[in-house]
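Predict the 3D structure for this chain.
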Amino acid sequence: MNKVFLIGRLTRDPELRYTGSNTAVATFSLAVNRNFTNASGEREADFINIVVWRKQAENVKNYLSQGSQVAIDGRIQTRSYDDQNGQKRYVTEVVADNVEFLGSKGSSNNMNANNSASTTNAEPTPYDFGPSSEPKTTDVDSNPFADFGSSIEISDDELPF
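Done. Predicted structure below.
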């Protein structure tokens, strides 16, 4: 089984490219803190290369930047290529199946950072699709059963318990 779960912060803005068949691919590096401190009492981090494909790659580019906190689940992939000098180079990276947006650089470790609307948040959220998708509001003073046509009677006496 090849499964990876990571939570960390982007070390740089995502780079978005397109393949020859016009498939979006984004790459970025993720700083993931280690669970222990070194001999000096400092917490170290690992810097892990992440690759994201298709629509999720475009969302990553549009909504994340350096310092954004994300949760990733995916798989480890290794590949090799020949550099300009003809030497074989090996790359290990995580191919993300899912990227959860947890917060921006200035926010605390709050998992609901992008799940609630904020009038002071200048950064768009992944759930902001413009005015056409705004939820419809209901007038709380109106009667939702006004057009039902007949009255509804409810009695506790008829309940079997």
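The helical segments are 54-63.
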